[in-house]
Amino acid sequence: MCQNTQNIEKKRVLSCIQPSGMLTLGNYLGALKNWVNMQDEFDCTFAVADLHAITVRQDPAKLRQQIYSTYALLLALGIDPEKNTLFIQSHVPQHAQLSWLLSCNTQFGEMSRMTQFKDKSLKHANNVNVGLFSYPVLMAADILLYKPDLVPVGADQKQHLEIARDIAIRFNNLYGDVFTVPEPYIAKTGARVMSLQDPFKKMSKSDENLNSWVAILDDKDTVIRKFKRAVTDSLGQVKFGEEQPGISNLITIYSAVTGKSVAEIEKEFEGKGYGDFKLAVGESVADALAPIKAAYDEIIKDKKALEVLYKEGAQKAEYVARKTYFKAMKKVGFVV
Ligand code: ATP
Ligand code: LTN
C-alpha cells in the first residue's frame, strides 16, 4: 500500500459554464457545488465559456457584465484561484484555434445528431447559426486542450462529451497520440432541480416565468416569495414520490441544502401543511445563498482585483493549452 499520498498525482478535471444569464439554484446544486467539492481531491481547471454564449444572440453590454459576474460568482462560491486554474475561455486563443483543427476532423453527420442543437434551433428559429451547430466542437477543444481525466457535466451535456471522446480517439488514430480521452463525471450529490412552476421542466435561467427559477444572487425575500409561490400537489402530505412531482422537487432541494435525508424530511413535516414546508425550504435556501451573495457583493466591487485574477488564470491555462495545441498542429503537418 502506498503511504505517501503527496506523491500520487491528482487526477485532472475540466469543466466550464456559460455566462448566458443569472446562474440559478439548479446550476448551483447540479453543477457548481460539485466543482467546489472537487477542488481538494483533483487538479481542477474551470472556465467561463463566453465564446459558447454567442451561439445565441447576446446584448454586448449585458454579455460583458455577465462574464464578470459569472467569474466573480465562481470566486464567491469558494473556488480558489490559487489551487485551481480559473479563467475566461476567450482569453486563451487556443480554444478557437484548436476548434478549427477539430472541425476539419468532425463529420457533418455526427454533428447533426446532437439533440441540443435540434432543441435550440427550434427555440431560436430566427438565428440558427453555424456556431450553434458546431458548438460541440468548440466544447471538445475546451476539454482536449487540458488533457483532463474527468469532465463533470450534467446529463444534458453527456452527448457532447461523447462527441469530444470520439473526436479525440479519431484524431489520435489518424495522427498519433495527442489527446487524453476523458471520462464523464456524474457526481453522486448532483441534484436535478426542476422548475418551481412546472416540476416536469428543468429549472432554467432562460425560462421566461421568473417565478420558476431562483437565482443564486436573489435576496432573501425574493427567494422566500418564489418558494411560497411554488406549485404543489393535492395529497396534502410532505411525501416524496411520482404522484407528487412538485413536493418531491422541493424535498430534493431541501435535502441538497440541509444534508437531511428524504426520510428525515418526511418525518420532520409529518402532520404539517404545505405552507409550513414551503416556508422552511425557502428559508433554508435563502440561508445557504446569503453568504454567497455577501461574498459576491464584495468581489464584484473591485474590478481591478478581479482583473488580476482572471489574467493570472488565463496565463496558467494558456501555458497548458499552448503545448497541446502545438503538438496537434505539428502532428497535422503545419510548420510550427
Ligand atoms: P439555459 O437555460 O441557458 O439552457 P441552463 O440554466 O439550463 O441554461 P446550462 O448553462 O446549460 O444551464 O448548464 C450549466 C450546468 O448546470 C450544466 O452542467 C447543467 O447540467 C447544470 N444545470 C443546469 N440546470 C440545472 C438544473 N435545473 N438542475 C441541475 N443541474 C442543472
Ligand atoms: N456546454 C456546456 C458548457 C461547456 C462545457 C465545456 C462543459 C462549454 N465547454 C467543456 C464541460 C466541458 C453547457 O452549456 N453547460
Give keywords.
336 residues, mainly alpha, Rossmann fold, Tyrosyl-Transfer RNA Synthetase, 2 domains, three-stranded parallel beta sheet, two-stranded parallel ribbon, 54% helix, globular, binds adenosine-5'-triphosphate, binds L-tryptophanamide
Structural summary, described in words:
The protein is mostly helical and 336 residues long. It has two domains: 216 residues, 3-Layer(aba) Sandwich (Rossmann fold), CATH 3.40.50; 88 residues, Tyrosyl-Transfer RNA Synthetase, CATH 1.10.240.10. Helices cover 54% and strands 7% of the residues. It has 13 helices and five strands. Strands 1-2-3 form a three-stranded parallel beta sheet. Strands 4-5 form a two-stranded parallel ribbon. Helix 8 links the parallel strand 4 and strand 5. Helix 4 runs parallel beside helix 13, helix 7 packs across helix 8 and helix 10 crosses helix 12. The protein is globular. The model has no long low-confidence stretch (mean pLDDT 94). The structure holds adenosine-5'-triphosphate (ATP) and L-tryptophanamide (LTN). L-tryptophanamide binds next to strand 1 and helix 7.
